[in-house]
Amino acid sequence: MIMKATQLLPILGLTLLMAACEKSADNQPTTLEGKWEMRTTWGDMPLTTYPEGNGNQLQFNNNHYVRLENNEVKKTGTFSLVKDKSAEATVGLVIPEGQFESRIIFESDPGQKVFYQFSNDTLYLLQGFFPTDGGSKTGYVRIQ
Fold this sequence. Notes:
- By secondary structure, the chain is of the alpha+beta class.
- It has 2 helices and 9 strands.
- It has a single domain (31-142), classed as Lipocalin.
- Strands 1-3-4-5-6-7-8-9 form an 8-stranded antiparallel β-barrel.
- A hairpin with an 8-residue loop joins strand 8 and strand 9 (136-142).
- 12% of the residues are buried.
């Protein structure tokens, strides 16, 4: 009887671990739809963090976007999403396999390559060219 209980314990632990991982994966966003507020930026300056309610947002609805800075509309227009695995060559950083493999094309600036990915509850945008101090990585948290 003791032997069976000790054999079941690792199986029970693995089952609980898988359930916990499944639950956390459900919390990860998979769509741009909604309102996102800037929380971090990193580039030619050290990491900068922004408080909740800072007024710097990206809003996505269908294929329409609105960019707010200090609660004022700065840009609005349409966008599209494409698969693109050229982030490493474009931004001049070593990008791990499977990261930043999609881009947002803003119709107001189609030449600017803006790569995106989700990590936990955050949307990260990567753009520019880091070796010339022209790159930036911005983190946004969904607020609605």
